[in-house]
Amino acid sequence: MAAPIPSDSNHDIVRLENARKIYQMGTEEVRALAGVNIAFHKGSFWAIMGPSGSGKSTMMNVLGCLDRLTSGAYYLDGKDVSRLDDDSLSELRLSYLGFIFQSFNLIPQLTVQRNIELPLYYLGWDAARSAQRAKELAEMVGLGGRLNHRPTELSGGQMQRVAIARALTNDPQIIFADEPTGNLDSATGEQIMELLGNLNRQGKTIIMVTHEPDIAAHARSRLHMMDGLIDRIETETHETDQPYQEHLARR
Amino acid sequence: MRRTSLIRNIWLGVENLLLHKLRSFLTMLGVVFGVGSVVAMLSVGEGASAEALAQIRMLGSHNIILSSVKPVEDEQSSTVHSHMSIYGLTYADLERIASSFAAIRQVAPVKLMRKEVRLHDRAMELRVVGTTPEWFDLVPREVLAGRVILPSDQQKLAPVAVLTEFGARKILATRSTIGQNVRIGGDAFEVIGILRNETGSSASMQIPDQEVDVYIPIEVARRYYGDIIARRTAGSREREKVELHQIIVRVDHTDHVESTAVGIETMLNRFHTKTDYAMSVPLALLKQAEATKRTFNIVLGSIAGISLLVGGIGIMNIMLASVTERTREIGIRRAIGAKRRQIVVQFLIETVVLSTFGGLIGLGVGVLIPFLITYFSGMATVVKWSGILLPLSISMAIGILFGLYPAINAARVDPIVALRHE
After folding, report:
1. pTM for this structure?
2. For B146, which of A92, B34, B178, B318 could close a Cys bridge (C-beta 3.0–4.6 Å)?
3. Mapping DSSP to helix (H, G, I), strand (E, B) and coil, where does residue B279 land?
């Protein structure tokens, strides 16, 4: 029934096969993902687009190991993770993934440094190494002088920089960005997108959800969703990707 | 598996609690009062029972005390003029008791009467106790000066008297009085010693000696004063014949106290048709006091336990509210990769830190209260190690017990929902 996956699937950092996610809303079934086939290469920069209710957030949650599929398979770096338990998914998030959110999601009572260090706390790093790492990352995002500030003392752009630094703390394979500029003015948004673009150029895979075409334009590939299915794919860089994605989408 | 160290976890908890100092303090108060009241109540209870036990020990746990009691029938018929009531323990009883039981070590007979004791021109009515040298073994009191009655005094029918500290002071007798004569009801007795008083006798428990005692050999008492006592009460003249007022029996081992007491009772009942004597067994009182103490502790403990429970519920309540308030934080931590278990541990440690710290403060309060009670009211209090460690470990247990539910609630939060939580 299923056609064989092309050989370059080895380079796929994430791959969904016939992915379905069905929610029970009262008596009604909501098909957030209605059988999606897609693969993203290592080092790619994707924008997932679509109107609200199109399934883009669900897709993001599934790819980010925050949610599990109802049926189908999800391969993360070649490993099927769709049947893993909660602890194993936590472990994956901790080791391989980084998250950036629209509302920054910093812990308000912790300082910038402690926020950036947070993943290292769960990774079991000692305090001295963690502090050193947090300092490096804060400097990288241009907030070296704000380590002891609390998030409430920062501007939106600064908070998002802290969030990016935190997402990088564990040196993740993939960075997930959920409307990263949604709460920022356009100039600040541009700066944040530049930062993400730089990270991508340094080799990080970035998967971003957005509904703003201007922001999506920063990504190298765009995935449009509609009613839980892939509607359209645009890729700029990897031209060889096109037939492969179409092959996947047809299945 | 990666582990975050316990110390870092505890420190994280302390930091979080310090962010809301007033709230943390108020949450803690419940446990502070709970533990404080447990420690205070236990020490007051312990002190009260220690006092009671000390009094009973003064009676001697090996002793059985028999006392003559005027029977009820005689009391009623005493309206008849110049009726003489004869009742109580007899010399024959003494012989029988002393010779019938192998377990009995010593027996001291006691004759009591009230007489005026005069030294020079100071006079005082004292309780004259006619007894044998065994008394001083059975009711051991410190000899302040001179000596007690010896078997030789007994044989020689020597008119000698031993005063108590209190009695001596009343008639202005001092050390130098020893060797001099006092007059007891008109008869001359040589003062041979002065004993220390045991204070703190209570009405409920009759300690054999009183502070107004003067001790003389029983044979002397019998010769001089006889067995018949005349009393004038409310116009009627009353005479009663009592051979012995008390018999104090010492048994060789506490295990034999009860069986000997039963044996004596059975034997006496064969010769006494009326209930004209009473038996008191300090050991039985001791056991009873210990049982009372246990009940007392249980009652006090439960009351204090309830306040601890209320404190625990207070903590749980605040922690549940805190979990709701910090839903987003939990979501962030989970998204970053914290496992459910780590969220449980985080919240649990916060509760345990709160309750343990509250417990420590409560301990301070609980130790201070008995100290103040003793200082201001003079009531005895005893702070025992068990009375400290028990509430402290209970306060920790309360932290775990009442922290578990909020912590599990926290870990149940779905990270996706939590991240959207406003």
Report:
1. 0.70
2. B178
3. strand
Non-local (6+) Cβ contacts of B40 within 8 A are B365, B366, B369, B370, B373
Of B28-32, B84-88, B256-260, B404-408, the poorest mean pLDDT is in B84-88
A173 to chain B, closest Cα gap in Å: 14
Domain map (residue ranges) of chain B? 6-56+288-420, 70-275
pLDDT of B26-51, one tens digit each? 999 988 988 888 888 888 878 877 77
Contact between residue A228 and residue A34 where contact means Cβ atoms under 8 Å apart = yes
Are B336 and A107 inside 8 Å of each other by CB? no
Instruction: Say if residue A4's pLDDT is above 50.
Output: no
CA separation (Å) from A29 to A18, A26, B132, B335? Answer: 18, 8, 103, 26
Q: ipTM score here?
A: 0.90
Pick B276 or A197 by higher pLDDT. Answer: A197
Report which of B160, B165, B157, B156 is spatially closest to residue B148, judged by C-alpha positions: B160
Q: Checking DSSP bridges between strand A45-49 and strand A71-76, what pairing results, if any?
A: unpaired
**Alpha-helix residue ranges (DSSP H) falling in chain A:** 56-63, 86-96, 112-123, 127-140, 156-168, 186-201, 213-216, 241-250
Q: 3-state DSSP call for residue A239? A: coil
Residue of B nearest to A127 (CA): B8
Domains (range + CATH), chain A? 7-250 (3.40.50.300)
Residues of B in contact with A86 (CB under 8 A): 339-340
Q: Which residue, among B14, B29, B60, B23, has the nearest Cα to B280 in the 3D structure?
A: B60
Give the separation between CA A56 and CA A64, rounded to whole angstroms: 12
Average pLDDT (A145-155) is 93
Q: Are B178 and B146 in contact (CB under 8 A)?
A: yes
Residue B251: other Cβ atoms inside 10 A: 25
Does residue A172 sit at the B interface (CB-CB below 8 Å)? no
Distant-in-sequence, close-in-space partners of B344: CB < 8 Å, separation ≥ 6: B404, B407, B408, B410, B411
Other Cβ atoms within 10 Å of A75 Cβ, number: 18
A25 to chain B, closest Cα gap in Å: 15
